[in-house]
Amino acid sequence: MHFTSEQRLDDGVLEREFTLGEIPGTLWTPESGAPAPLVLMSHNNGLPKAEPRLVARARYTAAGGYAVATIDAAGCGDRPRSAADEQARADLRRAMRAGEPVDEIFESFIGPLVENAVPEWRTTLDALLTNPGIAGPVGYSGWMALGIRLAVAEPRIAAAGFFAGGYVPRAQRQEARQITVPLLLLLQWDDEGNPRQRALDLFDAFGSKEKTLHANPGGHTGTPWFELDDGNRFLDRHLK
Amino acid sequence: MHFTSEQRLDDGVLEREFTLGEIPGTLWTPESGAPAPLVLMSHNNGLPKAEPRLVARARYTAAGGYAVATIDAAGCGDRPRSAADEQARADLRRAMRAGEPVDEIFESFIGPLVENAVPEWRTTLDALLTNPGIAGPVGYSGWMALGIRLAVAEPRIAAAGFFAGGYVPRAQRQEARQITVPLLLLLQWDDEGNPRQRALDLFDAFGSKEKTLHANPGGHTGTPWFELDDGNRFLDRHLK
């Protein structure tokens, strides 16, 4: 893991860009520098790690006493995409404009995107845990499809917050019941692209004894600010 | 309003019983004694104000810096019941044992219970606001059917937390969309006596721009402890 840049932000958080082989990442750590629990944070459907809403969430979480890491995994963010992926995304845009069903198109590229991202997140986790500023336990926050796969595959994940606004491939819908760690599921009630009932069905399916659903009115990007605070308190209950 | 007993509890909260004409009530105020925002707290379906879960919630809320008041309104708690009410409750128990539909029975006595309780809660509110230890604004917490009616009828209610585990009469289901104050709806996902879909439909119907649903697994009495804390923070956002 090579740090390529370092910046002290006005909230005291230290923001560092890193590379790990081909994987580009960002690590935010709290002002104190003392070993902090780690939160892996990812944006729905492989959006770039530099996406402003992800960055704002990461900084808020880091200011709350966490080391927060994100990466652009294979095929995600600014990483190269396969011709098939480019084609699928073009098909998706065309189908959405035409009001046609999009599930099969989503399935064709989100499924492999999740499968291919998981090993890179695990490699990153291995490397992060050798950093003296980072202590276990490990939490997860964000992209639900990736989070389901990681929470099932990776025993070091101790708690997870999922955002319901993204496509969840069939494989992850099926393995949802295998999850047993505490969960917080955040749902935007009027998120047009993401049917509410699917999120409620997933909430029902999760195997965790402690799972909480927070739903708020409004569209995909309308999550109220106080959910940031609730998200930190959820992590505090399980990681501190 | 006559205070009939007074007790300083080990969390510093002052607990006072009072009567207001025929209405018996309890008021909990924070240790500081400084004027505090008021929370009206009521238990589903007219259960007694001394019910231990209500008392625990009231004390926790008071310790968080609120004056918390509850009453046994007409027909509620230990107040005398009409012969018709006694009959309805006997019919309800019989129907539940027999696994028969209970909606019409609930409708027949919860509807009037709510209608008759509202004037007494408003009278109590008038009296409470003359107390030097109580300041506006006013919040509500608990029994959803009563809370819907109060939030529609009483402009002094500035925010309301509802617990979904109780029968909501048709009249209140219809007026739910008239509510505009911030809401927190607490739902036990596996509450057998209270169909989940009805609570989700009500959440959808509320007219409030800010409304949040918190759902947790488990039965009617299984609400996790951290929802007490979340409830206080919801009140803090709107009453402090």
Description of the structure:
- The structure is a homodimer of 240-residue chains.
- Chain A has 240 residues and is α/β, with parallel strands linked by helices.
- The first copy, chain A, has helices spanning 52-63, 83-98, 103-128, 144-153, 170-175, 196-205, 226-239, and strands at 2-8, 14-20, 23-29, 36-42, 67-71, 134-143, 157-163, 183-188, 211-216.
- In chain A, α2 (83-98) packs across α3 and α3 crosses α4.
- Chain A is globular.
- Chain A binds chain B through residues 189, 200, 203-204, 209-217, 224, 226, 229-230, 233, 237, and chain B through 189, 200, 203-204, 209-217, 224, 226, 229-230, 233, 237.
- β9 (211-216) of chain A pairs antiparallel with β9 (211-216) of chain B.
